[in-house]
Amino acid sequence: MESRVLDAVALFESGYNCAQSVFATYADLFGMEKEAALKLACPMGAGIGRMREVCGTISAMSMLLGMKEGNADAKDQAAKQHVYEKTRQMADRFKEESGSMLCRELLGIVGREASAAPSERTAEYYAKRPCSRLVARAARIIEDTLLSDME
To answer: How far apart are CA 61 and CA 8, in angstroms?
Structure first.
């Protein structure tokens, strides 16, 4: 399969949030249309609703894992454990490569921002934020972890 890392970055740099950019880039591989993927992932951006908690790219990776290997049987604890372990592996790799998995730490922000209003996307915004690189990093993790056996 051809890499979609640059597609994820292009989505982000066209104005979608981090979670949308990663999730929508790959959701079609698991049967979800792009518009539905963009809507579903929207609240996860900016560390969940711009609260600057867990990076939206990690939320997107987790949701994609759920689409591929998620557990729909409430009694199947082994399946649930498998998904939790794989989620941790992806998040740990992201954290190791990025230094954190918290949006505010990745951006150098102290605490929760008062406003839920998204920042205006300008050339300066993209130049000062690491988000494009973080989107690319999450996309590479998706490709290495979830898609390597789909070729």
So the answer is: 12
CB–CB of 42/20 below 8 Å? yes
Query: Could you tell me where the beta strands, DSSP code E, fall in 13-92?
Result: none
Chain-centroid distance of CA 17 in Å reads 9
pLDDT digits (tens, 9 = 90+) for 1-43: 799 999 999 999 999 999 999 999 999 999 999 999 999 999 9
Is the separation of the CB atoms in 150 and 73 below 8 Å?
Answer: no
Calpha distance 70→137 (Å, rounded): 22
Scored b (16 or more CB within 10 A) or e, 23-54 reads bbbbbebbebeeeebbebbbebbbbbebebbb
